[in-house]
Amino acid sequence: MRYLLLTLLFIARLSLAQNKFDANIAAFAATDKQTPPPAHPIVFTGSSSIVNWGSLVQDFPGKPVLNRGFGGSELSDVRYFADRVILAYSPKQVVIYAGENDIANDHSAQETCQRLVDLFTYLRSHRPKLPIDFISIKLSPSRRKYWPVVQEANTLIKNYLAKQKNARFIDIRPAMNDASGHLLGSIFRPDSLHMNPSGYALWVPVVKPYLR
Predict the structure, then answer these.
(1) Which helix (H) or strand (E) covers residue 166, if one does?
(2) How far apart are CA 29 and CA 192, in angstroms?
(3) Which residues pair with 19 in a beta bridge?
(4) Distance of CA 36 to CAs 26, 31, 56, 89, 144, Å?
(5) Would you say the pTM of this structure is higher than 0.85?
(6) pLDDT at residue 7 in the model
(7) Which of 25, 28, 41, 80 could hold 66 in an S-S bridge, CB 3.0 to 4.6 Å?
């Protein structure tokens, strides 16, 4: 009975995810028809930190980057839509930023890591040699109470990826700190959650060496 209830809850969660993000996924399809994406791109996907990276193409000239982030998404949502936002493009590489919303919605570090494992396993079941990189979950001032969980999740994910082939953990956290090791408040928008262009400018030199 417990297994049945968990299964039903999982199905309900997937249905909710589908309804919540239908417009985003439809917009990607419409964009692809108007402007065909590059062949075998480097797909950046995940939550709003990817969505808001408006300078992504300009930041990595010569690289076939494709932004397929959808705001508010959790790792489970990226897994649910993986066929349409990742695998459909036959990518040469995938760069993921997600997990922050999972934690803000009260999922533990272990659950967040497991969601990444589920996504990773699914992608590799279709593309065994697909390079998969994960950008560390950032510390957001407005979500300070979650920082210990974020740090633990990052450690678990880093350790998991270290055991996988063609998989890397991109740690952007040090670049977001000042000389004293404190998080730079100036790189965030007034909501203290989303980054402004100055924040992304700090990410670029960290992420760039990982792109294939």
Answers:
(1) none
(2) 32
(3) none
(4) 15, 7, 17, 10, 40
(5) yes
(6) 57
(7) 41
